[in-house]
């Protein structure tokens, strides 16, 4: 009986059941439908489950290859488990900082990749908003952890450094490499979108300068600090409103000003998403959580790394952290500049700087307001002066709509000079103590 049943299973799986004489079971009342349903229950369920599991495993491995191994920065991914091990086994805070900093580099680039994949499914409007939100996810998460730990000087330095890095390092090296790669071609770009970003950066600069001038005009005192804080909060609300207007301007009312950039990008690289929408969202959430963990390590160990390496906190925050956070923008901008697509390079560099200046900075002020942390827009004289000259030099560089490698040389050398300035700059300990004392007075 068992032999005949197994034979029927074999015959049905091979498609030969109907070609053979009817069995005794069928003659006794078991129909073909009953036999097949019995076989499906007994034999095919494990096969189907195994097939589904195999498909899921193959799908996961394909996504793993695209997301993890799809970048040249994949060699830095082992730094992530090393950072976790350094924290678990107490290797030392400088080691934890170094591994965390290295681990953030490929994560920042992959977050940019995943937002592009999601944009294939959500459309240009939602995709643009998603890119605006996640484009500087690393800097934003680091800033929020610094705000939570009340390390206001680290927060201000990292945000300032991100703006300087995008305007001078990213844009400068892009113009330099693009000019050298296209010596026999006239490099041109659309001035309209550059003018819009320059205007927003100048508005943000005004909102940074006014609290500084107010403090110097009134004099140092706890009352001055209080009114500077109120002025900064009011200015931050204005900056956020301006950024919302910029998003509407870019994605809705005057989208044609930015379509030249998007159209050229689509002509250069036509294709579909390489991973699914749900997979991209899952990977994005997972990587954001890892970025949050590493950012907490970075913020918590930056002073220990500064003391151990003999490098000022200002240099680490203004130079090293933004280079890590802007790795994706830097690489992409240079690649497009090599291909003589300066509209895209300018959109990447200026757009990222505008996001930091007009969205992330005022957002930190407002979030600190809700957390009773006294974050303001007074970035001190040296830092605000560096920001002012950077924005003015960038605006002058982009005023004629043409480019050559000499413009890139000037911007890059400006960044080197500012980096040298903060290499020798040390935060006075009494200044940090006074700031914390003011916070304690108003908290009480």
UniProtKB/TrEMBL annotation:
Family: Belongs to the Ca(2+):cation antiporter (CaCA) (TC 2.A.19) family. Cation/proton exchanger (CAX) subfamily.
Localization per record: Vacuole membrane
UniProt-listed InterPro entries: CaH_exchang (IPR004713), CAX-like (IPR004798), NaCa_Exmemb (IPR004837), NCX_ion-bd_dom_sf (IPR044880)
Biological process annotations from GO: calcium ion transmembrane transport; intracellular calcium ion homeostasis; intracellular manganese ion homeostasis; intracellular zinc ion homeostasis; lithium ion transport; phosphate ion homeostasis; regulation of stomatal movement
GO molecular function, one term: calcium:proton antiporter activity
Residues making up the signal peptide according to the UniProt record: none
Annotated membrane topology: Multi-pass membrane protein
TM segment ranges: 67-89, 95-114, 126-148, 160-183, 195-214, 273-294, 309-328, 348-371, 377-398, 405-425
Keywords, comma-separated and alphabetical: Antiport, Calcium, Calcium transport, Ion transport, Membrane, Transmembrane, Transmembrane helix, Transport, Vacuole
Tree of life domain: Eukaryota
Protein name: Vacuolar cation/proton exchanger
Transmembrane found in the keyword field: yes
UniProt keyword Glycosyltransferase, yes or no: no
Role played: Vacuolar cation/proton exchanger (CAX). Translocates Ca(2+) and other metal ions into vacuoles using the proton gradient formed by H(+)-ATPase and H(+)-pyrophosphatase.
Domain Sodium/calcium exchanger membrane region: 95-251, 283-423
Gene Ontology cellular component terms for the protein in this record: calcium:proton antiporter complex; plant-type vacuole membrane
Main location: membrane
